[in-house]
Amino acid sequence: RWAAMLPMQFPDLALDEARRAAQHDCVGFYMRPNPVDGRELSHPDNEPLWGAIEALGRPICIHDSGSPYWPSYGDRMVTHTAGHILAHPFEAMSAMMSLIWFGVIERHPRLGVVHVEADAGWVPYWLQRMEQHWEFSGNAEHPELKKPPTEYFLSNFLVAARGDERTLPAAISLVGDRSFAVNTDYPHPDGTWPWGIERLAENEAIPRESRRRILWDNAAKAFALDV
Questions:
Q1: DSSP state of 39
Q2: Rounded to the nearest 5°, which phi and psi values hold at 19?
Q3: Which residue among 28, 42, 85, 188 sits deepest, i.e. has the most Cβ atoms within 10 Å of its Cβ?
Q4: Contact assessment for residue 86 and residue 196, using Cβ atoms and an 8 Å cutoff
Q5: 33 burial via Cβ count (<10 Å: 0-12, 13-18, 19+)
Q6: Which positions ≥6 away from 70 have C-beta within 8 Å?
Q7: Under 8 Å CB-to-CB from 160, ≥6 apart: which residues?
């Protein structure tokens, strides 16, 4: 199973690559959450791409990465470790908000979004934060937002967690067990392969059925896997 890396600096070429890769059986499309040439993922230049990906029936897979060209929240830190701590979850949160609040999911209700390797414990807080702003400002500045932001999250997003996340049971309790999957970051040295899978499978703080969904069912559905 593989995901195609799309050249988001050229939206027209990204569209061509998405269609080419789909012909070769990719299961998703990788992109960074960061602004590229000053364009957030919700920028109008990306609209044709979202329509094409929605029609192809494959999710976008979002993962931050180091780059000498595109800015990241981690850039303000002077060490790799500090930047790594900051960049992945903050960029994921920013991308999720952008896709929801600027109407991308409203306009493309079948566009699946998978957040990878940014952990998952932040999800309940981020949904709460967005709901607070929905309650006091509604869609006054965002007319394309037709529903509460959590509804878009629950219908279109999947967030991958480490198998050893201490906050995962709480996140499941607050959000439910159908919006999370597991990742290991194999073969990176800060990854959790293979023990992360084992740690999650044996975590009795998470109901058995929830563990099954997070280990397999949710991802299988997102990537349309039959086997």
A1: B
A2: -70, -40
A3: 28
A4: no
A5: buried
A6: 32, 34, 35, 36
A7: 114, 115, 116, 117, 118, 120, 180, 181, 182, 183
Contact of 166 with 204, CB cutoff 8 Å? no
What pLDDT, on a 0 to 100 scale, did the predictor assign at position 73?
87
- State the CB neighbour count (10 A cutoff) for residue 214: 27
CA dihedral sign, ordered 172, 174, 178, 182 = negative
pTM: 0.95
- Tell whether the torsion through CA atoms of 217, 218, 224 and 225 is positive or negative: negative
Report the percent of the chain where pLDDT is more than 90.
88
What percent of the chain clears pLDDT 70, i.e. is strictly above it? 99
Q: Is the CB of residue 183 less than 8 Å from the CB of residue 117?
A: yes
Classified as helix, coil or strand, 162 is coil
Mean confidence (pLDDT) of the chain = 95
